[in-house]
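Q: For a teaching session next week I want to show students how multiple molecules come together into a single three-dimensional assembly. I've collected the sequence lines for a complex. Could you give me the predicted C-alpha cells for the whole thing so I can convert them for display?
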Amino acid sequence: MEGIGLKILGALLTTIMAFAVGMTYGGITRKLTARVQNRVGPTIWQNFIDLVKLQSKKTNIYHGVMGHFAPMWIITAAMTVLMFIPVLHPNSTWYSTWFPNLTFHGDLIFLLYMMVFGSLGMALGAGQTGNPNSAIGVTRGLSQMVGFEIPFVLALVALMVQYKTTSIQDIMAIQDQSGVWMMFSNPFSFLAALFASLGMFRYSPFDIVGAPAELASGPVSEFGGKYLGVMMTGGSIFAFIKLTLYVDLFMGGAYSIPELLIKTFALYMVPVFYGWVSPRYRTEQAIRYFWGWPTALGILGVIIAVW
Amino acid sequence: MENKRNSQTIAEYIKNWSRKHSLFIMAYGTGCGAIEIPATLTSRYDAERLGIRGAATPRQADVLLITGYLATKTLKRVIRVYEQMQDPKYVIAFGSCTINGGMYYDSYNTINVLEKYIPVDVYINGCMPRPEAVIAGFQQLQDKIARGEADNGTRYKENLEWYRANQHRVIKNWRMPDYNW
Amino acid sequence: MLEKEQKLLEILKSAFQVEGKVIRNRRVEIWDHKEMVPAILLMVKTQLGYKHLNHITCIDWLEEGKFQLVYTVFSHTDKLTLFVKTKIDRDPAIMPNIDDIWDQANTYERELREMYGIEFPGLVGDQEFILEDWDEMPPMRRDFKTDVYAEKTFFAQPGREDAQDVRETITKRSGEEIPEFAKKYSRD
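A: Of course. Below is the structure for the complete assembly, covering every listed component.
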C-alpha cells in the first residue's frame, strides 16, 4: 500500500491479467464450441493470434473523430471500471500487496453507472461511421441493455437493501463472517443476476447486437484492423470485470488467483452452455425473456430482503 | 536480428506468422462456388482449425474469395468490396470461370480473366473445387504469407491505373465512390 | 379424350376466327395477329377463367425477320394451359402492351424490351431492367454475336500450348471413328 510506484505496477498487473484471462476464456470457448460441434477447432490462443494480426494491419480506415475515439473510449472505460473492482478478497495477502487499486473509493452504484460507459462509446463510434447496420446494432444493444439491466439492478438492490451497504468490500466481508455465499443466502437475487449475465455476455440466444448474418456484426461493422483489435481487448477486459464482480458479490470473492480463475470460469460457462443449445432471439423476444422470470425473481429477492 | 530462412526481421516474421494463422474471409459468394464455403467452414472440413473464419464485413476481412463466375454487375460490387478491405488483403479465385471464363467464356455478361481487374494471390482450379481443394488453396496462401510474398494490396495500388482502365472497359458508367485505403 | 381441350378451341375459334390446335392432353395453342392478342387474353381471363399468366416469352426467327411472342396462360378451374402465339416484325418490333390486364406482365415486357428490343407502347418502368450500362444491340437477338462481343470487351485467356482436342483424344483412346456430324467441330 505504500508508494505510488507499487500502485501503478499493481494497476498494470491487474489490467494485463484481466486482458489475458478474458482473451483466453474466449479462446477456450471457441475450442469447446468446436468440440461440441464435432470439430477440431482452433487453438485456445487463437484470439491472441487474431489480435496480433489485427494490430499488424497496414491500413486502418478513418471514420472521423468519434469513430477514432470509440475504441479508446471502450478500453478506457474498461480499465477505469477494472480499477474499482476488488479482484481478490480484501483479507488476502495478495490483495493488499498487488491489487488494491482504487477499490476503496468506489461502490456498487458507481460501478453500475460506469459499466455502461463501454456501450456508450461503442454507440457513439458506430453513429459516426454512418453504416445503417451499425445504427440498427446500437438500437438493439441499448434495447437489450434495458432488458437485462432490470433483473441485474434488482439483484444488486436486494443485496444493498438487505445488508445496508453499497460497498463491495463490506458485502464480501459479510459473506466471510457468516460463512455462507450470497448465492445460497440470497438465491433468488443470484438467479436473477445469473439470467442477466446471459444478456451481458451476448452469447447465442442474445447475440442480437452483432448478429453476423443479419447485421454484418452490427456496431463494429465499419471498424477493422487496429480499431477492431482495441475493441476486442476492451471487450475481453469487460468480460473479466463482469465475472469478477459476480464472484465478489455472490461467491464470496477469491483469496488467490487460481481460486479466482476457477470461480470465474465456472460462471463464464453458464452463458456459453446456454448459447450452445439456443438459436438467436429477436429483440422483442430477448426483452420479453428478461422482463419475465428473471425480473420476477429479482422482485422476489427484493421482497425477501426487505422483509 | 535476421531470420535466415527468408530474410525477414523478427517482427516481420511474427506479424506474418499471425497473419497466416488468422485469416478472416469475406463471406461474399459470387457464383456457384459459394456453396462450397459452408462445407469448408463447418464440421466436416473445419477450416477454423487453420485459423480461418468468416468475417461479416469487408472492413474486418483479410481474404476475398471469388467463388466462380463474375457477372459484370457483380464485378462492380466486388471491386467496391475489395477496395474497402484493409491492407494486407488477399484474393483467392475459385474455379475455372475466374481463370479463363470457364463455360461462360463467350458470354456477353461475365468477365473472363479475373486477374485483369483485381490482383489474385491463389487460383484454385476445378469446376467446382471440392472443400479439400479449397483448404489446399488456403494452405498455399498461408505459405505465401509466411514467405512474405503476398502483396496483393500493394500490387493493386501500384498498378491502379492499369486496373482502373481494365475496369472501365467493362463498367461503362462509373458511379463509384473513391475509397481512401 | 381431350373434350375440354376441343371445347376451348371451339369457343376461341368461333369468337375470334383464330387458327389453333390441341397439342396434347391439357395443352392448347392458338395463333393470331398481334392486334388481336390483348382482346383474346382479356376474354380468356375474364370469361373463361384463365386468370394465371405463366409467362411471356419470345423466339427470334431471324431468317423470317420475325419475332414470335408466346403468352402462356393457365386456368386453375379447367387445369388447362393455353398458348397464345403471335408473330411480329423484327424491325420495328412493336407489340401492344397488356400490363393493364395482368400487372405482372410489366416485368416480362420490360425484360423483352431490354433483351430483344421489342417496344411496348405505354409501358411503365425504367428502360434499364437487368443489364447495367448496356449500349449495344439487345443481347438476346440472334444477330448479336456474343463471342465477338466477349472477345472485344473481355480479355480472352490464351489456351495452353499443349492443350489437346478433347474429342480427338477421346476417340483416339477408345479407337472409335469421329462421327460425320461431329467433324465440323473438330479443331483442324
